[in-house]
Amino acid sequence: MRAVVIGAGLGGLLAACALAERGFEVQVHERLPYPGGRFTNLEFKGYQLSTGALHMIPHGRKGPLGEMLRELGAEVEILPSEPQAVFRVGGRDYEADEVHAVLSAREKLLAVKLLAMMKLGRAEAGEESYAEWLAKHMRSETVRRIADAFTGWCLSLRAHQVPAREVLAQVANLARLGETGVPRGGCRGVVDALVEVLESQGGELVLGSRVLQVSGEPWGYAVHTQEGRLEAEVVVSNAGLRRTARMAEEVLPAEYAAELAGLRSVPGVKISVACSEPVLGHSGVVFTPDASRVCGMNEVSNADPELAPTGKHLLMAHAAPAGGDLRREAELALQDLHRLIPRFRERCRVLAVQTYRGEWPVNHAPSGTHLSPATPAGGLYIVGDGVKPEGWMETEGVAMGVRQMLEHLAAAEKSSEI
User: Fold this and answer.
1) Helix, strand, or coil (residue 268)
2) Which positions ≥6 away from 181 have C-beta within 8 Å?
3) Of 1, 12, 88, 110, which one is least surrounded by beta carbons within 10 A?
């Protein structure tokens, strides 16, 4: 059967490779002149800056993305981060199991108990936000700021903006799977490996090709591009929720299309910094609860030196905006970096400040929004960062969403819907 994949982001490429492996004739159409979308690199003055996602894989080699890459035969080396993460509080760095040292004796006992419950998956939550859930168990400004830094880095949302159940599931997965990692070559290392797999399986990648419309036919779908009309039994959209709703409005129920179009995207600010010497000294995440906007930073060149020129280092920071003026949010994030990094002006130079919003966001839907990859139109599926199952963050959520899509497709094939 024939499958058309719209968008060559991480989700689209994973889906395309998996479909080709299952015997589909696959064609991927990407409107940009390069594959990867918000998950690749742009070289700037010898530094490998990412177009969107940071050069990190949350669960390293053990997680859903690492597992799926191996299954597909994509040759990607994922370099473990050591340590996985630390929290910078009061100018000192604490690993996750040590950060309770900054709390009062009573807070410390409560925090240790809560963290143990969360790691074991024994903590329960109703409909409240993560901030509300924490406040029920312990009222601590320090704990709130630590929670904001964690969710701000991982989800680009503050603790009051994400359901407690979602965060609890993510913490349990982090505890179970352990390591974080940096792919060698950064995001583009993953993308290049997937493109190689796709082409080796006979799949085709068409760059600079904008899909205009998806219409229904008795045998499947017609996909209309600027270049012409394609026929396919299966269509997978990695084009974002609102674009998918517009392109496929002819075949999607109006109420469902309105639901997709109405989901808010998640904004963010990323700052890439060139350093003349190691600033963090390791490749793990540094969460920054004392900052006003920056939630975390990592020095990825400590894992893969080729992400920066010889003798230099690449540091990347992420900020979860507290307001809608992203220019102002970026200015506040830059002020944070000057406070967080000693002798910033002497040691560092800002390479790029990137803002993400609208149809080029951090996430097309906030974490805690659990869309099925199967749409009401049989044979039409959605993948990408807007379709992440509960408990899975960032790229791991994208990979799990693709896996769910394949399960839905297999069930549809079995029932002869396709």
Assistant:
1) strand
2) 56, 57, 59, 60, 61, 66, 78, 79, 80, 81, 303
3) 1
Q: Work out the pLDDT band at 124, boundaries 50, 70, 90.
A: confident
Contact indicator for 402, 68 with CB cutoff of 8 Å: yes
Rounded to an integer, what distance in angstroms lies between the CA atom of residue 199 and that of residue 196?
5
263-289 pLDDT, tens per residue? 999 999 999 999 999 999 999 999 999
How does residue 332 score in pLDDT terms, banded at 50, 70 and 90? Answer: very high
**Equal fold, 2-40+62-78+187-264+365-414 vs 85-177:** no
pLDDT of residue 418: 62
Return the sign of the alpha-carbon dihedral for residues 60, 191, 233, 249: positive
Second CATH level (architecture) for the domain 268-356: Alpha-Beta Complex (3.90)
Q: What is the DSSP string of 95-146?
A: ETTTGGGGS-HHHHHHHHHHHHHHHTT-----SSBHHHHHHHH---HHHHHH
Q: Residue 321 burial by CB count (10 A; 0-12/13-18/19+): exposed, middle or buried?
A: buried
- CATH class for the region spanning 2-40+62-78+187-264+365-414: alpha beta
Report CA-CA distances (Å) from 4 to 22, 27, 256: 14, 5, 21
Task: Tokens for 293, please give them.
Answer: 């906007």
Report DSSP state, residue 81. Answer: P
Can you give the residue ranges of every domain in the chain? 2-40+62-78+187-264+365-414, 85-177, 268-356
Per-residue pLDDT, averaged over 35-50, amounts to: 97
User: Who's near 129: CB < 8 A, 6+ residues apart?
Assistant: 159, 160, 161, 162, 163, 164
Per DSSP, what are the bridge partners of residue 207? Answer: 30
Residues whose CB falls within 8 Å of the CB of residue 345, separated by 6 or more in sequence, listed in order: 338
Cα of 76 vs its chain's centroid, Å: 18
Angle of CA points 218, 220, 225, to nearest 5°:
120
Give the model confidence (pLDDT) of 363-395 as tens digits.
999 999 999 999 999 999 999 999 999 999 999
Tokens representing 102? 């900054």
Angstrom distance (rounded) from CA 54 to CA 376: 33
